[in-house]
Description:
Elements (H helix, E strand, L loop, with lengths): L12 H27 L14 H28 L2 H8 L11
Helix pairs in contact: 1-2
Amino acid sequence: MSHAKPNDPNLSPGSARIGLVLFVMYVLLYAGLIGIVLFRPELLSTRPFGGVNLAIAYGMGLIGAAFLLAIVYMIACRMVEGSPASRQAASSGGVRKKQHRD
Length: 102
């Protein structure tokens, strides 16, 4: 397990990309709630799930989604760190060396 610092040149760009994609997914989920609040607030008082109104269900869903996305990020980053390309970059100091042709 690596404990890289934020400015560490050995950080995988793949991990950053994964984090950004998952962040955008969460923002879209949150934007859905904000859209309902702004444009259809009467929907929040409906009770689609056994007496729990939509506002509470959506809020709890957002919390669950945050945990789920964190687990997905953890697993995906381990897969990226374990890939042969990632190991090669880490062993070369994170910098790709030019090969000389004679």
